[in-house]
Amino acid sequence: MFGSLMLAPTAWGQAADSAAIAAQQAAVKKLDWMRGLWRGKAETLTPDGPIEMTQTERIGTILDGTLLVIEGKAYGTDGSVPFHAFGVVSYNQASGKYVLASHAQGRSGSFPLSLTDTGFTWEVPAGPNALARYTATFAGGVYVEVGDYVTEGQPPRRFFTMTLKRVGDTDWPAAGGLSKD
User: Fold this and answer.
1) Looking at the domain that runs over 16-168, which CATH code has it been given?
2) Apex CA 88: angle with CA 87 and CA 89, to 5°?
């Protein structure tokens, strides 16, 4: 908090970079299909076998549409919450690249995110010569995301699948902010 207070006067003294903001808004707009409330089935494979869950996603934009914010929450059949994640997708106009800042299960990191014709992919390092590759697709009103464990020299092993349908609109996270009064 103290550090942000020290930096704030410097930031306030600078004019907004309207070209950067416009580029970020245009880039994030390419993910507009994600905005809203989503619910569906998810399955993750563990050493003890598959676990089925109800997966929910709450997705919206903030900072004038320059960031996409994602909250994912899974509910077990017993009502427990075995998975809860938060992510922020941003776009850097100088590099022309997207980044997903992910926070889940006590871990966090920033990972490159690449758009595809039908969605996006992102990867997380998962050990020597290994990674977890997530592939999201959107077609016919259905959002599907799969996770594959990829080890050098071996075929990918699917460990996660979620299939979601859009169940509503949301003005989260922008709604509910304080006004000047």
Assistant:
1) 2.40.128.20
2) 120
pLDDT under 50: residue ranges of the chain = 2, 4-5
Domain ranges of the chain: 16-168
- Percent of residues in the chain assigned helix, strand, coil, to nearest 5: 15, 55, 30
Q: DSSP characters for 155-180?
A: --EEEEEEEEEEEE---TTTTT----
What pTM was computed for the model? Answer: 0.88
**80: exposed, middle or buried (Cβ count in 10 Å: 0-12, 13-18, 19+):** exposed
Say how many CA atoms lie within 13 Å of 118 toward its Cβ: 11
Distance between CA atoms of 26 and 37, rounded to whole angstroms?
22
